[in-house]
Design goal:
7 helices, single chain, disordered N terminus, 0% strand, 64% helix, globular
Length: 141
């Protein structure tokens, strides 16, 4: 059984590629965390006529953050179906949804949910970089 698990952990997405995603996600997270320091910067209040019309202070800083997010989104969107599923499964293992011994199950579930919104899904994870790191470590990649 152990040999089978090790074979299942062979990634089509290279660990170095995942580490690049981790660096981009950390850069994105660092920018967001600075904005949330006082907890008030991004509170959204909608009146009856507003439709997510939300503006930030410091638009010059935000444009560089958006560039990082856009870069990460493009990198994720450029992945093939197997690579994208592996990235999602790594995040799930890192988050604790699956144990490393359940890699095959995590990967199967990630393939089932595969769609064009993988980047949006992953970028919506608040601790994406940490979870990817922990996922790589858990499977020994």
């Amino acid at each position: 059984m152990q040999q089978r698990l090790e074979k299942d952990w062979e990634l089509s997405i290279g660990p170095d590629t995942v580490r690049l995603f981790i660096l981009k996600a950390k850069a994105l997270s660092a920018g967001v965390n600075e904005d949330y320091a006082d907890g008030a910067e991004h509170e959204i209040e909608l009146d009856g006529e507003a439709h997510a019309n939300h503006h930030h202070d410091g638009l010059a800083e935000e444009s560089s953050e958006n560039l990082t997010e856009e870069e990460l989104r493009e990198l994720i969107n450029d992945l093939n179906v197997d690579e994208a599923a592996e990235l999602v499964a790594l995040a799930w293992v890192g988050r604790g949804d699956y144990d490393a011994s359940e890699w095959t199950d995590a990967l199967a579930a990630a393939r089932e949910r595969a769609n064009r919104r993988t980047a949006k899904y992953l970028l919506g994870m608040p601790l994406l970089a940490d979870w990817l790191e922990e996922g790589l470590e858990a499977i020994g990649a």
